[in-house]
Every structure is written in structure tokens, then in C-alpha cells.
């Protein structure tokens, strides 16, 4: 395996409403920011993550390429998933050994539609989508399967929102009221990461965040074929990535609902010493399709600026934590 | 000039719907559904997947071509309540999404459950499908699941004609005049109200009526939380009231005081309906209300 490190991370100051910026306009500042920070203007590989259903337009990622300066032609790819998986693809590409740098970015505007019902479109079209099972409904099923105490869930939301208020990129949200399931906030935003392999990493930054483990695992899509109270795939991915090989100072978890954090803490076998989602996490800002990449970026930023030595990032996709990606970063 | 802000409505839609092939496995399930049967498919390891998938999610191996009828009853393993259904949901009344382990299946089906009442919803409850009138081979052929029948309501009603003669007739005649009639036992000197012709304790005769005051003392009481057509409101209080001069209490309603302030030893007086409305019936006394006198020490 080649040493691959995250050498730069940038994210938008996310908003809870549509500011009117187009997707390329949203992306351009973060692309420019990581270019300036690394001094790189061309990359061996570029990969992005987004979802056409968020914009309600086919091939919406193609127009986003306008933000890249894609002429002369670049080597580019896209995943219709959270950009954390674009980072995975870029990491695999760098393992080929013929290129040394990659740009990864993700973006999403959930202000354009009703995410609750848009997420129904990701369900299987035979058994689940025709029922109109929506995002809150299947999250509710998982919360019920876990059966966590209301106080514990409320405390996770309170802590996340307080941390989010201290994070200039996250949303400034009040403490939640009521005793129901708290949904992640409507969020528009984007994020970009630069990966560098081999000697290039050390030349671009004094403290690269080396990817020491990176793995993803998936479970059956149909909710009734799984034990929703546990995340076997997150546990498997964490084991494969080597989360337990050392102390985890900080874990950034892609928990869009409070109960997901409880499930993920157990799956990743995090101890009480690990600080979870100091950025506020998805409960404080959830630009869908960038949220997972932001978890990796936030975990990497703490190593890039010397605050931590070993952090873990998690990204999720699919209904009820179906698909989980775990990254272990070390200074 | 353009309006500010510039906002446009945008709709993504496949008019008429998106045509999809079902393949043999999903197709078999939906075909059976049209016949109001629910089938699962057996995996190589012998598990029954419902709804059927082409591959065993545990091993990735193709499933067998053995289809097994399951249910139609099943057990709710997990559920979440939907208080405000969305337009796309299968029913337009509050309902629960549930994972339902159908009898004979090794996995759970996701569907809607409509209980009689939200509080009737619970894990472990038994449910059965309620079918659409004309199934077409679609997951929504099952409109929703409903609880299995575990109880019925049997109407009971019989009519009787009662006649108050004897001592009760005498007592009610008194009530019609606004007087409570009792009687004293000749042998043991105990005073009973309502009036009766013999003593229940010694069997001695009670030849004459005795007018008793309509004031008394509460000896014990109950707060009732189920509505009663005769009671002023819920909760209401029924009490034993020992009329002044009587040796046995009468049961009557107490009102004119919050239920939680009623106490043993409280002094009360009958509240009569206006004279013009009186009949030979206990309805002449609406209830007993506190007199405001000091409480009586009960021995
Ligand atoms: Zn007697």
C-alpha cells in the first residue's frame, strides 16, 4: 500500500436555506481554497459525490464540472453517493502508483425539495418506495428497534447543536423542543479534500493526515432483513480499517439521527475517552452527499493543524445506516 | 422588471409512472399477492425470505425456486407511529410503520399497521392484512395490516317494568313531597332509611314511618372516573351519607365541591329539584352538597 494522506480540506459556510447559488458557484470557493492551500492547480485524478434527486435533474454533476477548470481534459469520475465514497475511489486510484494527487469534492442542496420524501426514492422500487416509506419513518423504525432512552437521545442532539454553534461552518440551531425524532437540518453546502500519495504529501503540508485504514461494508437494503438495532456493516468496516488498533481521540460520525450515534459508537467500539462529533456532526449541518466527506475532512483537519494524532471518520449511505465507510487517520 | 427574489417551481415526474421489470422472483411474489396470497422464497440454507429477494442476503447465493406461502398473520417486531400521514403513505389516517414477522417467514415485512387506537399499538401484537378491493399485483394490494381479532363487543339489553309498592312506595311518596322517610325498629330501636316494614337485624316490625332531616354526614366515599349519566361531571363522588338521626347510611352522589376535597365526616345536605319538577323518584335529589358546618368526628 502506498502512503496516502489528506493534505487539505475546505468546506462552505453551510446555510439552512437556498442562497440562490448554483452548484458550481457553491463548489468553486472550496475548490479554489484547497488549490491555494496546496499550491496545486492540476490533479492526477478528480472524483465527486452528489445525487441527481437532490437537484431533480439528470446528470446534475456534469454542470458542476464547470467549477474545475476541466480544460485541457482532466481524468475525472463521479459517484452517485456521498463524496466519502468519491474519496475511497480516489484513494484506490492513487494505489495504482502512476499519479500522486487527487481532488475530491461533494455537494448538496437539500433546500430545493423535501428531503424526507426525496429519500424515499432511494428505496427499492418494488417493496418499499411504493408504500411511500419516508426518511423520518424508516429512521423512526430504527430508533424504535434500538429503544434508547429519550434523555440520552435529547442529550446527543443538545450536544451536537451546541458544538455546531461553535463551528463557523455549521448551522446556528436552537436546542430542540418537543419529544419526537429530531431530523437533521435542511442544509446547503459543499466540501473538498486533496489527497496526496508518497513524498508529495510531506511536500504539501508539514503535518499530513495519513489514511491508515479505509474500509466500507454494506448490508441488505430491505429493512426487514436486518437487525436495525445494530450496525454489523459499520462494525465490520471499523474492524477492517483498524479503528481498535490504537486510542481514538476524536470520531466524526455520520449520524443524521441521535439514535444512529448510539448504534455507531457501539459498532466502532468507541470508549468514553473518544470525543464524538466536536464539529456538531450532521445534526448541526447536513449538506447531503458532502456530509460524509466533511466527517473525513473534520477528522483530518484536527491532524493537519496539530490538535490530534489519531482520529476516525465515518460516512453512511442508504436507509438506516445500510452502508458504512470508516477511515482511520494518523499524524 | 423581474420579480425579486427569482423563484421557480420545478417538478421531476415520470407521467404515468416508470415501467419496471419485476423478474421471476419479485414477479412471483406480486403475482401471488394479486391472488391475496403472501409467499416467501426459500434460500439454500432453508430460510424463508419475505418479501422474496433473488439472492440470499446472508451468503449472496441465488435463492431456490421453492416458494412458501406465509402468514397471512404475523407479529409486529418493531414499529414507529405516524401521526400525520403524507400523501404518498398507504393510508390517510394515523398509523404505524412496522416490521412484521409473518408466520413461517424468517425475515420481516415492512408495512403499515392501523390499530383501533394508537395505544393499542405494541411490539408483539398479532396483525393480519387488509386487502385492497381489486388487487393488481402491487405491494399496496395489502392496504394495511390490522390487529388480529382478540375481543368482540356483545350488546346486552333487556327491558323490565318495575313497580314500587310496599315500603318503597311509601318512601318514594315521601320523596315526592320532599321528605325522607325512615322507620325505627320496635325491638332494637335502630332507625333505617329508606323506610322498610321490618328490621334487617332482628326481624322486628317497623309499623310507622319517621320523617328524617335531609342533612347528614359522609362516612365514606369513592371518586369515580367513568362517566355516569346521572353524575354531574367526571370525576364524580358517590358517598355513604348517614342522615341525622339514622343508624345506617344511604348511598348518594356528592357535588358542589371538588372531588379531591370530599372527606369523611363532611356535613352535607340534599339538593332538591324545584318543587314543580318533583316526581316519586330519587331523581328529586340531584345530589348532596356540603353545608359548610364543621366536620363531624366519626367513631
Ligand atoms: Zn331491630
Short description:
Chain A has 331 residues and is α/β, with parallel strands linked by helices.
Strand-helix topology:
The complex is a heterodimer of chains A (331) and B (299).
Chain A: E1 4-11, H1 23-38, E2 45-49, H2 52-55, H3 60-64, E3 76-79, H4 83-95, E4 101-109, H5 115-118, H6 135-146, H7 150-165, E5 188-197, H8 199-204, E6 209-218, H9 232-241, E7 250-252, H10 258-267, E8 275-276, H11 291-304, E9 310-317, E10 323-330
Parallel strand pairs in A: 2-3, 2-4, 7-8, 7-9
Antiparallel strand pairs in A: 1-5, 1-6, 4-5, 6-10, 9-10
Helix pairs in contact in A: 4-11, 7-10
Chain B: H1 23-34, E1 38-42, E2 48-49, E3 67-70, E4 74-82, E5 95-102, E6 109-113, E7 126-131, E8 142-147, H2 166-177, E9 180-184, E10 191-192, E11 210-212, E12 215-224, E13 236-243, E14 250-254, E15 267-272, E16 285-290
Antiparallel strand pairs in B: 1-2, 1-3, 4-5, 4-7, 5-6, 7-8, 9-10, 9-11, 12-13, 12-15, 13-14, 15-16
The structure holds zinc ion.
